[in-house]
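Lab notebook, bench 4. We co-purified these components, and the gel suggests they stay together. Before we commit to crystallization screens, I want a quick structural picture of the whole thing.
Request: model the full complex, all chains together.
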Amino acid sequence: MNAIDGTDRHIKSTDGPPPSLLTIILDTNPFAWAHLSSILPLSSVVANLLVFINAHLASGNANEVAVIASHNKRTAWLYPTPAPVSAHNTNGDSSSRNGAATHTQNANKYQPFAEVETNLLFNLDNLLKTTTSDDLSTTTTQIAGALSTALSYISKSTIRHSPVDPTLLESHALVIDDGNLTSQRVNLVSRILVLSVSGDLASQYIPVMNAIFAAQRQRIPIDILKLAGDTVLLQQACDATGGIYMAPESPQGLLQYLMMAFLPDATARKWLVLPSAGSVDFRAACFCHRNVVDIGFVCSVCLSIFCSPNLPDSTCLTCSSVLSLGGAITAAPALIPRKKKKRKRVAGDGSTPGGSATPLPGNGTPVHP
Amino acid sequence: MSEASTSYKKQDGKLLVAQNGRTVTWKPNAPSASSLTIATSEITNLQQTPEKSAKVSIKIVVQRIPGTPPENHTFSFTSPTSARAEQASITALLRKHIELARASGGNTPAPAAEDAPRQPAALAIAQAVSAGARAEENMYEDSRLMLNTELQRELLNARPRLFEIFNQALREKPDTITIIQFSTQFWAARVHDLRAYAVEKSQNQGTYNVLSEIKPVNVDGATRLNISKEQIQLIFKQHPMVRKVYNESVPKMNEGDFWSRFFGSRLFKKLKGEKITENDAVDPRLDQYLSFNEDADRTEQFVMAHVPHIIDLEGNEQDHSQRLGNRLDWTMQPSTNEKVPILRVLNTMSEKMLAEVTPTDAADPHAPAGMDEETYKELKLRDLQRGADDNRIMLKISDKKKFFTGNHGTQNSSSTTYAKRSPGKVLSAVREDVRNISDGMSSGRGLNLETAIGTQEDSDSEDDEEGVEKKARVGNKHSRGAATVQIMGAINQRHLHLDDQLLSTTSTAEQAAKVGLTSGVLDTLAMTHNTTVEFLHYFWTVFLSGDADRALEAEKLVETLAKSLERIKAVADTAEKERERKLGEQKKRIEEHLQKTGKRRKFDPNSIKGGSKAVNDMMAPITRAIGSALQQYKQAYEEQRAQMSQLQMML
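Here is the predicted assembly.
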């Protein structure tokens, strides 16, 4: 229209940073928390986490948050409360959802903050109430499941935020603004923050690595705040996706760690030097026993990692192809010089090259027999 | 003469050398006897009886297939008058043809290794060009580059940094390793550098259109024209007509005269391709060549027997699609000559220039005519094809469930500690904890976050007074301060490890200042690091080769590695001395400040960075590497020693 009648109309598109979704995975392994309760009880961690969530929601109007609890044998949603399957709300009242918390009207509290807080605490309480002793037979947490849940939620939110409908492309989704094509869709950026307290994750090596690669593809940084437990895989997650790995030395300053290191979103991170710890532990876990290996053997067809070259039936466990080491074994280093036998010079032998002619590196054939 | 009367196996006949030189035939006079044909390419040896002997004969040694014993054929020349002359001519002919056969049929690149080990690069290049494109890959082969010391020396001269590394490592190498071994090792890791440099050197500038480069220069009122000898050569090569004119005109007028007239004449303009206007000077002698027809020497360029349809312009004549529609563009019609002569001239010039360049698709003349597979593939319109079938290898993954239900193999420390507690107790503890949160919520008001997070602004000042007994509370100021310190430390460390792009823009002086060292010390450090890496490389090659004869080398290298450690320490000491000096200066400045103003400024030794601490931090990885190398060597040595002594005891 601008070109036709010479008016200067343009539609203002959002200039600020794009809305950001923060997904928090809270490791609720009761063993680990019981162990940590002297230094850092779960209640204070949850409180600090709530302040952090409030700060995130306050940084942008359209920012969103999601919290997932990674328990011993399952994962549970802490926020947003999942709608129950059999809900038929005839009156459409959101507060009368089955089991949902009724947040009270508190004039001193900002409503969205209050909603997050009540839901989170209610669901956490439920989770712990419904844990039986049977559930605690394993001592590690289902971090792989939590990561997958987070990734699928992020994917769903991204689509919901900016639906990709091919028919929309031709009509009003693309706006012509002074000859420039701008699309009105503003994409959602997301990241995942994991508060981890348990170790021994090598048993879930394959699914965790799959989740890491999926996040890498979608450009979702995974940040890790490691309060307890050994690291094994999680440093690799940060390194591969461009996130921040922090193992706090003074865990009581938890709020400071959260606010200073993990609050900036993707737009701000472009301009900041990230406080990631230096070295990364790149060791992998073998596919047969889930042991962490330093030097391993890899199948040349499907790239699965094994800890020893002697496999049952000499076949790879995943792709059933026949494997053998063959000529790949390096010779043992020989460090004692061999005794050189003195040989009588036969006439007409020609001059044997003296000790100066050495074979090229890697050749291995000795000069003297 | 290619024919002579000879006798073979006591039979008279004629010995003929074929016109193309490929076969030698002997036909007996008596038609009943069999004739003998020898292919020239199979002749391995040719002997003739000396001049002075009475008999005149030649002996041809033929080897039909390599591996079979060679056959000898003796022919004696029976001509009464000119036997010796015939013998001489036949042998000369045969020799020539044999050499020709060898040169075209053999085509194996003469291995340079057996000959003088220092084969100059120029000879290698000449061989490559003459033997065709196939030999070019061999020229850049690893073994040739390794032996080519001249090339290596030139590369070292061209890159001063590499030269420094080489010299320094050479100076510090142990004495039992000879220079040859050392340089072999050095270049073995850098063959790709050598290859790139060799390729770079072998490129040179091609020919250019000479006539357009020659312009008269106005100096001091007189127009001068500078032409070099090479330019004259090029003119003659590119325009043979000029040579003809020159040959005919120069005996009559002298050179300078000829050239000055030539460059002002219409002929020159025609050759350049410019349009000839009426204002140009008319030069009677030279202008007679204006109408000279150049087609004679141009036809030899049209060697292409079969023009592919896709570039066939004359085929457009048969293509009548535009007959009733738009006329062809006037530049594209093949018959216009005078309207735009520059197009034609430039095109023929380019063709001539390209004819001298080695062709990239120099097809073997014996290959079948027409397009070959590669050209066909290039000309094919790829994006109009249908998508290719999926040709991937299917992996049969046996049991997927196995991956996701991991059996918890290793029990590491955290799980064992957790296993000690009973699940019931753990659960109740955590539930209690969570209940604390709910208790914190006053009824209907939600959680009071300020008290929950535990940061109490006013009570933090008590921490100093409580002394040792302060119970660590979550969220107290001290821990938050420690958190800040840790985060800032991590950021600083990250900042030090600059990525490559930033690294190239900051100079060494700035980098050195960031760490706290002077740039001289940083340079020495870098050099030491490089040489140590060289020696480590060498050590590991020798160690892992499993070659018992290099055991002595390995020992010497271990000593060298120990010496590298000392060198690093020496650099650290130098840095420390520098730091001491800076400290002294700082102290002096504080003293002066005190005297001047009476105020004492605090002296903080930690603010001066650098010194041996910085050096050791930076060299920590390589020190570790040297340590591990030494340790592995020692371990393997002890084992072998033990084995040897056992063997000797048994003997």
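Residues 111-129 of chain A form the longest helix (19 residues). Worth comparing against the SEC data before the next meeting. Residues 87-100, 168-182, 342-369 of chain A have pLDDT under 50 and may be disordered.
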